[in-house]
Design goal:
globular; 26% strand; alpha+beta; two-stranded antiparallel ribbon; 7 strands; 155 residues
């Protein structure tokens, strides 16, 4: 059922702030002021955003900033999440979407996790006929680019 992504995103940010409070991190949010009507599974999109924001928070320093940039065109919604955290090695980038993959880096191993998060995210994005791409540089941060089609006009 179509819904206003902007409204859902606002609700997501309120909840997501609890995951960044402990480390005194902040969000920088860039998005259009107008409603963004989307025909997608609202709860799954929240699950995707929660996982990606959680990863950005976990692997970023205290008092850092996580940027969430939302853009649209006639055909798709684009969500970009950028952090300045520990980054992901080139070798690990090739495997991050594999189920149960956990980096062998000491910094990553200090964080709890099953290695399923990004695998699930990729599956959910693909169920929406979307795409996800991750670029990263060690000690400089990570950028996640997520595209979901089916932007629609309100009825």
């Amino acid at each position: 059922m179509p819904f206003d992504f902007s409204e859902m995103f606002g609700e997501f940010i309120i909840g997501a702030r609890t995951m960044t409070d402990e480390k005194r991190q902040s969000f920088v949010i860039e998005m259009p002021d107008d409603p963004i009507w989307l025909d997608a599974d609202r709860s799954r999109l929240v699950q995707i955003l929660n996982n990606l924001a959680s990863n950005a928070s976990k692997y970023s320093a205290e008092e850092s900033t996580i940027t969430l940039e939302i853009t649209t065109d006639a055909d798709e919604l684009t969500i970009e999440i950028r952090d300045n955290g520990i980054g992901i090695s080139e070798d690990d980038l090739k495997q991050v979407f594999e189920p149960f993959f956990r980096s062998k880096s000491i910094a990553t191993r200090q964080e709890l996790g099953t290695g399923l998060g990004l695998s699930v995210v990729k599956s959910l994005v693909e169920l929406h006929s979307g795409s996800i791409e991750i670029t990263s540089e060690l000690d400089r941060g990570t950028q996640v680019l997520l595209k979901i089609p089916r932007i629609i006009q309100p009825q």
